[in-house]
Amino acid sequence: MSLTALFDPDSIAVIGASKTPGKLGNDAMANAKEFDGPVYPVNPSGEGAVYGYEFVDSVGDTDADLALCCVPGPATPEVIEECGAAGVGAAVVFAGGFAESGDRGRELQAQIRDTADEYDIAVLGPNTAGHIIPHRDLFSSFVPGFDEIESGDVAIAAQSGGVGVTATFQLDREGYGTAGMYGLGNRVNTDFDDVVPMLDEDPAAEAIALHIEGTSEIDAAIDAIDEAETPVAALKSGDRMAEFVQAHTAAPIQESERYEQAFRDAGAVMADSLTELLDASRVLAQCPQADGPNVGLVTAQAGPGIMMADSLQERGVTFPELTEETRERLDEILLGFTYDQNPVDTGRPMPEFGDVIDAVGRDDNVDIVLVYEIFEHSLGYPVEELEQLTADIDKPVVFTVAGPDDALTEDRERLEELGVATFDTPERGAYAASVLAETSR
Question: Which of 245-254, 284-293, 403-412 has the highest mean pLDDT?
Fold first, then answer.
């Protein structure tokens, strides 16, 4: 089975398209219209056009290779049969009421699987929010606002469409897009082991974020992660309340322990929350791989720095002693009341703060540079110094920023362009540094 039509279609059919705002078929068309290729609203009851596209009676009247199925669950097996006869290569099934809902639903899902296997159709779902690939102008979802998501470097594959949607909008709110969001739903024949290799081949995806409730293809998923060159972060949920989980995506009940060590052995980072999942993915996407786990921490405020140091030490991250050359350079810069070991604290932002970061960043004992600074209008952030530092050293730099949003935006965006991953709380910055330590060579 090929996933090409799912990831890179030539044309799209929206089956069950509607002119009525608020209906699934209208929301799906509102997103699909952004596609740079033919889009066919399919509805034998449709008259005229929707979003400028003329209705057609049947998917058989199109040359679509991707179908978005906006029909109720009981009608879906017949629609998949029509897609197969029309030569459609992939279908997204939004409807629920399948294996997660009881015996009748399991029968319907089995019919979809059998028909899809007969015609070699890759099915995303059922019971999914769909998928989007912004850098291909592909928004195969009914979620309003998805057509405005920008392209980014983190790809999300989520068993729960709700988790995938939440993650996508969180990245968007924080100023990042996504390389893609894929809601796997009930995984009728498209599972993690199918999607991860495709994301690994996507040059836009610099990291892969996985949300998993449970899959019968766990061994294949582990193999896919192990073989992927793109870094992977994963979040396992659904350890308890088995009936709730079963009623969601019909996932097998599997404890996190079944995943955590196996995924780590395969090279994945395991997160404990959605924010950690996204932060781990972002820092892996943006920063070069660290040569080791040794962190050099520079702060302009000791309190947040102490919190970061506590968090890192709890995670087993080491703070190496700085070289004599670095200490001599710091002695020339820092005032006497500051702390010049590692962590290095300047007391407050200072004009030479960038020089302090530069000194620690160039230290041979430091593998990862972590910074905390509160914004001051008279100083800004040391963008120029970091530009030179990142050009000269191949080490990851994580910068934790605090201050008014408007004041931060320009400098923060410039830091991101330099490959400096930025975060907005001590805990998030420290966690990102711990991920780099965990995945160091």
Answer: 284-293
Q: How far apart are CA 402 and CA 365, in angstroms?
A: 28
CA distances from 428 to 211, 306, 380, 410, 425 (A): 19, 14, 21, 21, 5
List helix spans (H) across 372-425: 383-392, 405-417
In this prediction, residue 258 carries a pLDDT of: 83
Neighbours of 438 (CB within 10 A): 16
Over its C-alpha atoms, the chain yields an Rg (Å, rounded) of: 25
Burial class (CB in 10 A: 0-12, 13-18, 19+), 282: buried
Euclidean distance between CA atoms 233 and 142, whole angstroms: 26
Pairing label, strands 138-140, 131-133: antiparallel
What global pTM score does this model have? 0.95
Task: Give, in order, the Cα–Cα distances in Å from 16 to each of 54, 76, 112, 382, 409.
Answer: 13, 11, 17, 54, 43
**68 contacts 130 by C-beta, under 8 angstroms:** yes
**In the sheet that 66-69 helps form, which strands lie side by side, from edge to edge?**
39-42, 12-15, 66-69, 90-93, 122-124
Retrieve residue 358's tokens: 């530069």
